[in-house]
Amino acid sequence: MDIPRADRARSLRMRRIALAGGGVAALAAITFASSQLKPAAPRVDRAGLWIDTVQRGPMLRQVRGPGTLEPVEVRWISAPVEGRVERIPALPGVEVTPQTVLVELSNPELEQQAFEAASDLRASEADVEDLRAQLESQVLAQQAAATAVDSQAREARLQVEANEALSKDGLIPPLTLQLSRLKADQLEKQSAIEQQRVEKSRSSAAAQMAAQGARVQQFRDLYALRQRQVSSLAVRAAIGGVLQELPVEVGQRVTPGTTLARVARPERLKAELRIPETQAKDVALGQVAQIDTRNGVVPGRVIRIDPGAQDGTVRVDVALNGALPPGARPQLSVDGTIEIERLADVVYVGRPTHGQPHSTIELFKLVKDGKEAVRVQVKLGRSSVSTVEILSGLVPGDQVILSDVPAADGQDRLRLD
After folding, report:
1. Cβ atoms of residues 88 and 233 within 8 Å
2. 143, burial (CB in 10 Å: exposed 0-12, middle 13-18, buried 19+)
3. What gap in Å lies between CA 221 and CA 225, rounded to an integer?
4. pLDDT digits (tens, 9 = 90+) for 23-53
């Protein structure tokens, strides 16, 4: 009777072992299958994404940059001489004419130099008159001597004629005639020399007067210079316009060249834009631009490009061709858009928040009727302010996410809610 009971126990033990082994095998299979499953794609709210559709057609390339309106004609007024600021008749913001006095300076030393220059001029003019009188007297004396010798020569020639008549009649000896002729020849030569002396005297007088006149002119020019310097103590605007800056105060001592004021013509303005240096390489002279003053848009044209960059931007000057809107004034902040070129037939999409022109980036393309998005590589071409050319990776009609998706870091697929 004990044998059947032992067989039954053995059978139960074997069944239990089989069930345990099957459970272990099933658990191992489930564990292996679970390890092979990919993690579920993260969910992203579609309303918070910037989604655009790839298109084919014309694309306008533009660059944009902030800037300010600046006067075309600006005059910096500097101190012409050293002086002390005594009075400031005009203040920034007022309209001025070329003769408007902006700053009044004082310089006692300069005024003393002007007084001395006037005295030197008067003294040199008096010396000229004295020298002229002396030279005229010398010339007259020389002329008198020449006249006397000429009279003696004429008298001697008459005596020769008389002696020749007497000699023919035998009334005087031949020697007397010879002596009279010799004397007449001598006096004629002396008269010619005296005339030459008169001419030399006149030439010498003219030369001395010219030298003295040059000295007088030197004093006259110095006096005029001192007068201009004294007059320049009243610093004037030089051009008509609006006084913009006046960086001096009463009592301040200024040296020649110190900036005293800035005057501009407010009716003639230009836009000075700051274009990012990565985009400025495509900007050229003559390109069309639009300047947004926030109170109207004014057309313009590029007239100057700064050869150097500063703080990552390049300064571009734009001449304004249209009428300025109300409120346009110097230093007004504006935004400028410059048209680079028009591409006739390209594949393009809105410019993503990341990625540079002529580079390869990764974007999420919508699939399954926009319910999911998968990561794809996209090669970018030329770019504009709000669009970029697609060289490969996308085709017209594709929808892509252009905004950053923080939840997509390390993910190749997204689910859109």
Report:
1. no
2. middle
3. 6
4. 666 565 555 544 444 556 788 888 888 889 9
